[in-house]
Amino acid sequence: MNVQPSHVEPEPASSRLRRTLRVRDALRFTRVVGGVTVPALRIGLSFGTPIALLATIGRLDLVPFAAFGAFTSLYCRIDTWSRRARLLPLIALGLVVSVATASMIAATTGDELIGVLVLTAIAALGKLVSDVLDFGPPGGLMFVFAAGAAAYSAHDPAAIGPHLAVMAASAAFSVALSLLGNLLHPTGPHRVVTARALIAVADHLETPNPATRHRAHLAVHRASTTLRGNGRAIAALRAHLADAEQLLHHPADADHLRDLARKLHRGRIPEPQSRLKPHTPRSQARPTLRSRISPFLPNAGRMLLACLLAGLITTAVGLDHAYWAVVSASAVLQSTHATATWHRTVQRMTGTLAGAVVAFAMFGFHPSPLAIMVLVVVCQLIAELFVQSNYALGLVFVTPLALGLASLSNPAAHNELIVERISTTVLGALIAAAVSLVLINHQSNRRLNAALVECREAQQRLREAEGTTAADARARLTRSVFALRNAHAVADGEIWHRNPRTREVLDTEHQAYELLAATAPSREHSGTSLG
To answer: What is the Cα–Cα distance from 154 to 343, expressed in whole angstroms?
Structure first.
């Protein structure tokens, strides 16, 4: 328990740079447990329904704006119904406001420089708001994507009203469709998050190491914060989760956890056999607005500079569709540190190049506008099935989707669109990667220091806790461990930092988990089976 922090020599900057620029991690395929197929089908329906209606009435010119509204469905894929009800209307409003602003500027001025400035502002603000409010993937990307595409096709001020009306209606349909599942499977998101936690615990029990332990604890913590309410189903899921959490401290066979996870995916919630009473954390005092925003300002600053440079350089060299470069820069900077930005840069470039090949084949058949709309929906559906496992693989299908939407307003320039897509995407991504390397996030060190102090204080509080206060002290320590790991990931991802105190962080984390295990309640069962 009294492990003293080990001291290691700081890793040389050149070595850290070589480690960062490796592409192996960027192209790794990650297995996603649950919450993939149903959200993908819902997203496909969100895109396909309004597009089909517009095709029926012969208004193909409005199809891109229906797609922009359907971007709302890309968010909150497996979030609880209450969280979706809070966030999705706000996201829909943000998309409409972004498109309205960019469209009016483009229609009234026609100045490319002003257009770049507006898109840059939307990208930076979208990144900041999505981080602070925790929108989750795809972050602030879709705001600048929709705004840029709308600005490029906006020429008539009188058409802005119908465009926005169609977009708002499509967004409202996406919100309604995302909430409709509450009537069909009210415990669906809760079952998915619990099943993911059970699988994570089983993975750690089978191959125990610090990485699997952290993922398991994090998955359990996320599930515990999600499983709120007093219904019988939620109470049963909390009991299953509490039993799984005990296995992290008192290891046993993991097969029954995987079996239980499979049952949860099928819609069943078996009666729990454990008599463990899961602790419901008390509501924490809300942090101040300044403390919520300040950790995300460095990344918003990177976004501002990178998008501005991408737009200006693309315009200066005479490339059309400058907004594609801004979108590309925005896409790779939907990350938390420089290393993650480089990984997304590699994914963005490889996925776009592969997607361009698909687009060449697609346009080689000279598809009609109706066929292009069908391909847009199909590509979106397939992309959603793979994008969570690997961003590059998702882009293989997102690229022909974006080119298909662009071709609806310029059907005679397929090959030119593909070449411009490749060049602007590569240019924007590389500019963003360079900015993330040059513009150093100095705040990450201060955040790491504060997280270390908080984790040690939480450990001391738990050692001194007695009776009913012990459960809250354990919850505080659990939160502080995750905050420490996140703060270290950001600091370690900034390659010019000489010493992210890795050994000290690992030792402090080890002490915390040992203390959590020592203070865990004993297991009491009336049986051995969970399902």
So the answer is: 34
* C-alpha span between 137 and 32 (Å, rounded): 14
Conformational region of residue 209, where left means phi above 0, alpha means psi within -120 to 50, and beta covers everything else: beta
CA gap 45, 485 in Å, rounded: 38
Query: What tokens were used for 87?
Result: 């966030």
Which stretch of 100-104, 151-155, 300-304 has the lowest confidence by average pLDDT?
A: 151-155
| Cβ-contact 406, 399 below 8 angstroms | no
Locate 490 and state its tokens. Answer: 């950001």
Exposed/middle/buried for residue 186 (C-beta within 10 Å: 0-12, 13-18, 19+):
middle
Amino acid making up residue 296: F
Distance CA 253, CA 260 (A): 13
**Angle, vertex CA 233, rays to CA 231 and CA 234, nearest 5:** 65
The pTM assigned to this predicted structure is: 0.84
Paired tokens of 422: 């490749």
Residue 248 has pLDDT above 90, yes or no: no
Nearest to 500 by CA among 420, 437, 442: 442
Single-letter amino acid code for the residue at 241: L
Q: Which residues pair with 274 in a beta bridge?
A: 525
CA distance 198 to 299: 33
As separate numbers, helices (DSSP H) first and strands (DSSP E) second, the chain gives 21, 0
Using an 8 Å Cβ cutoff, are 240 and 530 in contact? yes
Distance, C-alpha 471 to centroid of its chain: 31
* Residue-level pLDDT at 305: 95
Alpha carbons 434 and 246: distance in angstroms, whole number: 45
In 3D, which of 75, 76, 56, 54 has the Cα closest to residue 65? 54
C-alpha–C-alpha distance, residues 368 and 160, integer Å: 26
Distance CA 318, CA 329 (A): 18
For residue 353, give the 3-state DSSP assignment. Answer: helix
**What string of DSSP letters covers 266-278?**
TT--PPP-B----
Segment of 275-284, 464-473, 483-492 carrying the highest mean pLDDT: 483-492
At 531, the pLDDT band (50, 70, 90 cuts) reads very low
At 408, the amino acid letter reads: L
* Tens-digit pLDDT profile for residues 443-484: 888 888 899 999 999 999 988 887 667 878 888 888 888 888
| 125-127-133-138 Cα dihedral, nearest 10 degrees | 140
**CA distance linking residue 227 with residue 235, whole number of Å:** 8
Instruction: Find, among 248, 280, 247, the residue nearest to 530 by Cα.
Output: 247
Alpha-carbon dihedral sign for residues 73, 76, 78, 81: negative
How far is Cα 132 from Cα 62, in angstroms, rounded to an integer? 33
**Cβ atoms 8, 15 nearer than 8 A:** no
Taking every pair of Cα atoms in the chain, the longest distance, rounded to a whole number of angstroms, is 74
67 and 376 in contact (C-beta within 8 Å)?
yes
Residue 230, helix vs strand vs coil: coil
